[in-house]
Amino acid sequence: MDLSNLKPAEGSTKTRKRIGRGPGSGLGGTSTRGHKGAKSRSGYKNKIGFEGGQMPIQRRLPKFGFKNINRVEYKAINIDTLQQMAEAKQLTKIGIDELVKAGFVSSSQLVKILGNGSLTAKLEVEAHAFSKSAEAAIQAVGGTVVKL
User: pTM for the full model?
Assistant: First the structure.
């Protein structure tokens, strides 16, 4: 056995269907396209969503929803995250810079402090917004809240 007598395995290859090669081939005449209609013509392109002239589904269904262009999006940080940061790095003041360095937010994001978890460290916290529960929890342990 050498390269000159290699053959593909039995049944692994098929002959290509050669359409439009006369009536004797069995694939002449309409060349597998059927009779008449747009799909039988040359130059036919199937447009996405086209339903043969019927009103397409994306036009039958109503538009819905609302996008508020004035929405302000905040990155949420819980007070238990602040507690972990304060313990790990012995911090008394946590601002945007510390959160950026820790990788919690990017410098362009607005930060909102939420009240999930518990806080024992006395911290000065700087952020763009605070939930009522977070503000109460920070002030309950003697910390201060600074809104930017």
Answer: 0.58
